[in-house]
Write a structure and sequence with these properties.
The complex is a heterodimer of chains A (114) and B (115). With 114 residues, chain A is mainly beta. In chain A, 0% of the residues lie in helices and 50% in strands. In chain A, the strands form 3 sheets. In chain A, strands 2, 5, 6, 10, 11 and 12 form a 6-stranded mixed sheet that branches. In chain A, a hairpin with a 5-residue loop joins β5 (32-38) and β6. In chain B, a hairpin with a 2-residue loop joins β5 (42-50) and β6 (53-56). Classes of the chains: A mainly beta (114), B mainly beta (115).
């Protein structure tokens, strides 16, 4: 199984609607989970991370993510999408079994239409 | 802080030429990473350093690729000779690992085109 999977290549949502970008992981033990965003012609920008503690993590630009251990998921959410949220989103996992290196998902394109 | 700085931002070269990409990490960070991003393969880790020492270079595609970190504020990724299949965006990232919860901060990338 893939260490981290983003099942949707693209997510389309209308401005003002809630958005969800999905991520599932497949590692043993307790992973560290991250979300990054990449705008066109830019580097990856850190959004948020889960290390331990509260399963709901709040990050930059109003984004949040919920760690669900039973479903091995870490979906990215935002209550009200903005057109400016349109970008490429990467989920990443760091775990001992991968040498503590950051392993990225394939990425999901988010398109928010006005 | 200026963030991670990479140069050049764009590089166009001909097959067979040597290419050198440069990176200045965030001051105080003790880890430095080189990634390559392509449509086909996504984001791949090439090599990473800790305190200027290469730790894992298992992602380096072949002997044509080499990376150095002569000091805490500078790293290079060299491709010699370059080939068209090396065309990609190369990112440098740095982090400060504290308790294993480090966050990697990425530079803007170098878009390499090998003709």
């Amino acid at each position: 199984a893939q260490s981290v999977a983003q099942p949707e290549d693209q997510v389309n949502v209308a401005e003002g609607n809630p958005l969800t970008v999905k991520c599932t992981y497949s590692v043993s033990g307790n992973p560290y989970l991250f979300w990054y965003v990449q705008y066109p012609n830019r580097g990856l920008q850190f959004l948020l991370k889960y290390i331990t503690g509260d399963n709901l993590v709040k990050g930059s630009y109003g984004f949040e993510a919920e760690f669900n251990k039973s479903q091995t998921s870490f979906h990215l959410k935002k209550p009200s999408a903005l057109v400016s949220d349109s970008a490429l989103y990467f989920c990443a996992v760091r775990a001992v079994e991968y040498g503590n290196k950051l392993v990225f998902g394939a990425g999901t394109i988010l398109r928010v239409k006005s | 802080d200026a963030g991670v700085i990479q140069s050049p931002r764009h590089e166009v070269t001909e097959m067979g030429q040597e290419v050198t990409l440069r990176c200045k990490p965030i001051s105080g960070h003790d880890y430095l990473f080189w990634y390559r991003q392509t449509m086909m393969r996504g984001l791949e880790l090439l090599i990473y350093f800790n305190n200027n020492v290469p730790i894992d270079d298992s992602g380096m595609p072949e002997d044509r690729f080499s990376a150095k970190m002569p000091n805490a504020s500078f790293s290079t990724l060299k491709i010699q000779p370059s080939e068209p299949r090396d065309s990609a965006v190369y990112f440098c990232a740095s982090s400060f690992r504290q308790g294993g919860t480090d966050t990697q901060y990425f530079g803007p990338g170098t878009r390499l085109t090998v003709l």
